Amino acid sequence: MSLRVAPRRDPAWIGRVFALWATLAVAWPLLVLAEFKPWALLSPQSLQPTLHFLGDFFPPRLEPEFLWMVARETWRTVAIATAGITLALGWAVPLALIASRTLSVSALVGRMAFLPASVRQAVRWLLMLLRSVPELIWALIFVRVVGLGPTSGVLAIALTYAGMLGKVYAEILESGDAQPTQALLRNGAGRLQAFFYALLPQRATELTSYTIYRWECAIRSSAVLGFVGAGGLGQQMDASMKMFNGSEVATMLLVFMALVWLADRVSALLRSALA
Questions:
Q1: Domain ranges of the chain
Q2: Tens of pLDDT along 51-71?
Q3: What is the C-alpha to C-alpha distance for residues 250 and 73, in angstroms, rounded to an integer?
Q4: What is 64-274's CATH number, 3.30.420.40, 1.10.8.60, 1.10.3720.10, 3.40.50.2000?
């Protein structure tokens, strides 16, 4: 009985080398087009101001009055994210039900009728429009319309996340088993009855998990929106940076990191409870 000798060379090395060179061939022109020059960070003109700016971060400001203000703005940041997600759900759920082919009565006999198909396509275009505009752009628009403050942040998160949630909700609903839903519709049940008794029990875990994930993302977004005047911790951080007060920025960065970690832990606990 002969023993097979293991090859000294990886049999797939040619494919891996080719993939590496192909990636470089594609990525290098993109980096040149984007003017990606990381070595500029190490030039004397950039390095000295950067080190001076980072040196102002230490020590962080820890006065009780300042910490109370940071805690208040942190809670406002969470409130902006939660209110925005709540409004987004109010728009995303009905739009997702309309966009879902599974709940179409005319599709039971084959091809969907022209009018329902047109409405469904129009809703999908609306969802694409909402999610294609970043929440930062919506915030800039609403800051000019309603003024500075949390209202702009809530509306910006609500519009963008309504598009995201509605699209994903519709896809999750369509990926489920359509037979129970179709059976209810064929026997005279309404669309809402078919949704609550057939579709929702199948996909409740996925829908809830994705909603929690989006709430976690909204908390990060609400801090970024503060830099354009949408309120919350980001607006205070922007004001401190404009005043070149690095110690205040350092404190708020640490608090924001703790907030993101806490939101991540809460999200993980809720997902594990749903599993």
A1: 64-274
A2: 777 777 788 888 888 889 888
A3: 15
A4: 1.10.3720.10
Contact present, 214 and 161 (Cβ < 8 Å): yes
Output the pTM of the full model: 0.79
Helical H segments across the chain, by residue range? 13-33, 44-55, 64-99, 114-132, 135-146, 150-174, 179-186, 191-194, 200-225, 233-242, 246-274
At 3-18, the pLDDT tens digits run: 555 556 666 667 778 8
Q: ∠ at Cα 159 (209, 132), nearest 5°?
A: 90
Note whether 218 and 78 are within 8 A (CB).
no
Residue 209: CA count within 13 A, CB half-sphere: 12
Question: What is the chain's Cα-based Rg?
Answer: 26
Q: List Cβ neighbours of 150 (8 Å cut-off, separation of 6 or more).
A: 76, 79, 80, 83, 230, 231, 232
- 59 prior amide bond cis, ω within 30: yes
Tokens of 169: 């909700």
